Amino acid sequence: MPLSGDLQRIALPGGTELEVHVSGPQDAPALLFLHGFPENYRTWRHQIAHLQDRYRCIAPNQRGYGNSSRPVGAANYRLAELVGDVFALAQALGIADFTIVGHDWGGAVAWAASMMGQRSGLVTRAAIANAPHPAVFQHLLYTDPRQRAASQYVTAFRDPAIEAAVRKQGLAELLLSEGVLGRLPPFDPAELAILQDEWGDEDRVRAMLDWYRASPLEIPPVDAPMGLPEGYAPSPFIVPLTIPTLVIWGLKDEALLPANLDLMPEWVEDLRIERVPGAGHFSPWEAPEAVNAALDAFLSKTA
Ligand SMILES: O=C(O)CCC(=O)CC(=O)O
Q1: 274 φ/ψ angles, rounded to the nearest 5 degrees
Q2: Is residue 103 part of a domain?
Q3: Residue 211's domain is classified under what CATH number?
Q4: Res 170: pLDDT
Q5: Does the CB atom of residue 217 touch ligand 1 within 6 A?
Q6: Number of domains in the chain
Q7: Which residues of the chain have pLDDT under 70?
Q8: Is 211 close to ligand 1, i.e. is its CB under 6 Å away?
Q9: Mind telling me which residue stretches traverse the membrane in this protein (predicted)?
Q10: Is 76 a member of any domain?
C-alpha cells in the first residue's frame, strides 16, 4: 500500500519548527512515530502505509533532521528537549493521548516520553524497535564487553574531530563503508538517495551528531574495568513503565545487541517482546511484514 498523507511544517511554542508527515482519519486513535539516526520520518513508511486507514499517524522529522529546525549547540538535543517536542507536537495537533512508536534514537525518546507521559494518560502505549531501555543500556555498557565494544562509535561521534572526517569523506561513505554501526543492510536505492541528500548537508550532520553529544550515557573505553561503578544508580528520572509496551528487536543488530532484551522485564511491567531473527538494526524496513504484524497484534490486544 503506498504512503499517503502530507508533510506539514508545524511551529511549536518556543520556536522549534518540525516537518511532520500526517495521515489517517482525524478522529482515529493517534500513533506518533519517531525515527532514529541517521534517518528521517520515512523509517516508518511501511508501518504508516499499513496502519493509516485505521489510525491517525503522525511522523515528524525530529529536530536536527530533514527540514526541521536544527538549533546550534548540543544542549538543544537533550532528551528533555526532544521529549518536549513530542508533547508540544501532540498539543499543536490537538491530540489528547497517543501511542508512541520509536526506533533507535526515536526509541530513546519514546522510552523517556513514556516514563514522563504515562501518569497523566498522555502516552497510553509504547512500541519500540531496536532501541535500548536507558537503564539496561547503561548497565550493559558497564558490564557487557560485547555491547561496550559495539558502542565505541558513540565516543567517535561525540568527538568534534568527526566533523572534519565527515567533511572529507561524507557521512554516507563513513557510515556505509567503515561499518561503524556494524554491517548495514542494503538500503532501498530511492530511500538512500533521499538520505544521502540529507547527509550531504554539514549543518544537518552536526545536528544529528549533537544527539550523541547531549546524551548522558557513559561509554567506558573497551579496556576499562568491567562492572558497575561503585555507588552507581540509574538516573532517578528512569521510573518503571506500567503502560502496555511492545519491544521489537531485529536480532542481527550489531550496534544495539539483543542482550538489551534480557533485563528489560525489570523495568517494564506490561511487556511483550517480538524477536525478529531475519532483521538487523533497521527492523521497521528490513522486516516490514513482521513489524506490521507485531504492531497489529499489540494494538488490537491493548485497545
Ligand atoms: O538509546 C540511547 O540512549 C542511544 C541510542 C543509540 O546509541 C542509537 C544509535 O547509535 O543509533
Answers
A1: -115, 110
A2: yes
A3: 3.40.50.1820
A4: 81
A5: yes
A6: 1
A7: 1, 177-179, 182
A8: no
A9: none
A10: yes
What ipTM describes this predicted complex? 0.93
Q: What is the pLDDT of residue 259?
A: 98
How far is Cα 196 from Cα 206, in angstroms, rounded to an integer?
15
- Give dist(CA 291, CA 136) in Å, integer: 23
Evaluate whether residue 1 is within a structural domain: no
Domain that holds residue 172: 6-301
Query: Does the beta carbon of 243 sit less than 6 angstroms from any atom of ligand 1?
Result: no
The pLDDT value recorded for residue 173 is 80
* 246: its cell numbers: 511492545
Residue nearest to atom 6 of ligand 1 (CA): 105
In a domain, 258, yes or no: yes
- The reply to whether ligand 1 has any atom less than 6 angstroms from the CB of 165 is no
Query: Which residues have C-beta within 8 Å of that of residue 297, sequence separation ≥ 6?
Result: none
What mean pLDDT is reported for the chain? 95
pLDDT at 6: 82
The pLDDT of residue 178: 61
Buried/exposed code over 58-91 (b: 16+ C-beta within 10 A; e: otherwise): bbbbbbbbbebbbeeebebbbbebbbbbbbbbbe
Ligand 1 contact via 274 beta carbon (within 6 Å): no
**Distance (Å) from CA 91 to ligand 1 centroid:** 26
The torsion angles phi and psi of 31, rounded to 5 degrees, stand at -120, 130
